[in-house]
């Protein structure tokens, strides 16, 4: 059994709302080019996905909505179902391109379920906003929901979904809000200040699934130290209590301080620390089973390629020294595509490449994220037999 699988094919670049849209597939192309230039993908067979059939899409979407997506390119602008809007403009072969994204995440899930790999990564996935009957937030079909639903039918009954995108993982939460088999955890910018306006700490699931939705809304300008502080104050304890068989993680990088669409203040080094932590948690709580997908990220040159190259490297156990200079050939490719662009020089944003330092919750430091952490812990910890006010839990 291979330890890790990477799903990629250039056909995934067809999920393209247009050159002026923030969700530009060039970010994927530049990531794969950088990871290749650094040797991260050397001798790694890239798994080529196929589009999923409609029956698999019905796991996440209504038949009426799937048909609307198929017909949208012929119907024109503003066809309903969230399609034809500035966020989700219609493009040629929208159904086919979107189905391929779903197929790429489902391929990673199949590799893990069939024992072909312990880990799988698909940077083209992570379309976490798509709802059952509509497109939302640059997301047409929800690959995360389809993959989790498929896994629930193929040997798994405790799946933890962790969303580190700057936006709340609303589509995935909505799909499993009443399903006790799925734990959804989302750390995101506070919904008062950012799309989609959901993800409050009081959103905890319903019925038998109360406590299965965990939300940590963070104040704008939260940086590496605060973000990691909040994560470690909540996520490891809940995972230990839930005992997942597999981790699915949405690894959007729009939490970066340079991202044009949001207001958190993480760095590439913070993203690298997140991925290393997720790998450790998968090893500790899920026998190493880890399906990682991409997500948001709109600083196309300086952030996404470096952060997701670190993601690929982490999944493959080929961690890149953050002090590594960026290959000259890659820099030249970027400048040929975007003359005058400000291109980073190394895989870190710190002077020495060290991981961010953060204080633990409950140490009395008075960090501004403490109230968000406290609200979340008090909302869900008692349901797992944990003391929300005891920092040891």
Automatic annotation (TrEMBL):
Domain Histone deacetylase: 21-314
Pfam family, one: Hist_deacetyl
Classification via InterPro entries: AcuC (IPR003085), HDACs (IPR000286), His_deacetylse_dom (IPR023801), His_deacetylse_dom_sf (IPR037138), Ureohydrolase_dom_sf (IPR023696)
Region of interest (Disordered), ranges: 342-371
Keyword terms: Acetoin catabolism, Hydrolase
Gene Ontology biological-process annotations: acetoin catabolic process; epigenetic regulation of gene expression
Superkingdom of this protein's organism: Bacteria
GO MF term (any one): hydrolase activity
Keyword Repeat included in the entry's annotation: no
Pathway: Ketone degradation; acetoin degradation
PANTHER family with a match to the protein in the record: HISTONE DEACETYLASE HDAC1 (PTHR10625:SF10), HISTONE DEACETYLASE HDAC1-RELATED (PTHR10625)
Family to which this protein belongs: Belongs to the histone deacetylase family.
Protein name: Acetoin utilization protein AcuC
UniProt source species: Saccharomonospora viridis
